[in-house]
Structures are given as structure tokens and as C-alpha cells.
Input
Amino acid sequence: MTDSNDRAAFLAAHDVSRETLARLDIIIATLDDWRTRSNLIGPNEWPQIWTRHVGDSVQLLDRIPDTARVVDLGSGAGFPGLIIAAARPAGHVTLIESVGKKCAFLRAAIEAAGLPATVHQGRVEAAPPIQAEYVTARAFAPLPELLDYAAPWLCKGATGVFPKGERWKDELTAARQRWNFAYQAIPSRSGGSGVILIVREAARRHGQA
Output
């Protein structure tokens, strides 16, 4: 069971529809059922599952249109991929994850909540062509490597929407050694000095493989 105070704090901070909340409740209940046998969320993380993990993911929705096709890299326990799918029923999310047990959970949550999403099991760098206008990833890789992973979509005009922690400026500096891109850093509502990093018009610098 989740902490009712944590859920209430999330609802006080974020405006979500009744239908979206119903889907979120199913996702979190499914995660609760799976988390101990699949090492999806650590025990210390669970008491803040709504305010930290769901809340972190919901922030991305301001930048993702209702009908968007999204690819989520290294989906893990489904943040932000499942949360985006719950709030964007007219869109579609493809979640890419290499670990079989995590993929099984993601598929179970998608089926239980009736989400517009599919799971591709495999490494991101070996993923087949997947149509998407937006790329997301949370706690997957530092920005220079993340842009490499996201290149199949970013280099075709997709927009990256990436939550980043307090070292985001260092990651940005390193990424700009290898990439040209336009960006916007939006302060995170989750507290601290993290941001939501919006990346557009990405192209590798000359001489970078």
C-alpha cells in the first residue's frame, strides 16, 4: 500500500483529471504488487512514490501534446513512460527496456490500466525504427550518452524531454562538445536545482561519430 498522505500531497501539487488519476492508481497498485519480486523500486523510494516519481513524470506533460507519439528510453519501473501514457490516451508511448522482468511488469501495468502503450524488450541502441515526435528518459544516462541513444529520433526532428538533476549544467557542457542543439531548461517542480531539459534541433558536431 502507498502512503495516503504522499498521494494527497501529489494531488495538491498537480492537476490531473479523474480519468487520468484512475489510470495512475492502477499503475501504482500494479507496481506495488510487482516491486518486491522484480526489484523495481527500492523500499526507501516507495513512501514518496507519488510525490517524487509520479510527480517528476507528470511535469513532462506540459511539453508533450495530447496526441504525441513518444519513445521512452530505459523505462525501468515506468517513469515517465507509463505516466505519460496514462495522461495522453489519444497518443502512444513505446517503452524500451532490456530487462525481462521489468518488461513483464510494464506489460502488466499497460494491460491493467488500458494504456496506449507498447513495450520493446531489448537494448536501446539495437531498437528497430520506431516513429516518435518526442523522446523521454529518466535517470537513464548522462546527457552526452543520452543524446547518443536518442539520436535516431532527435536527428529526425524529434524533441527530447529529459528530467535532469542538480548536475545538469555539467552534463550540458559535456554534451555540447559532441552535439549541436537548441535547449530550454525549465526548473523542476520537484524541488532542488534539477530541471526539465528540452532538446531540439539536435545534430552531431562535425567529426563526431
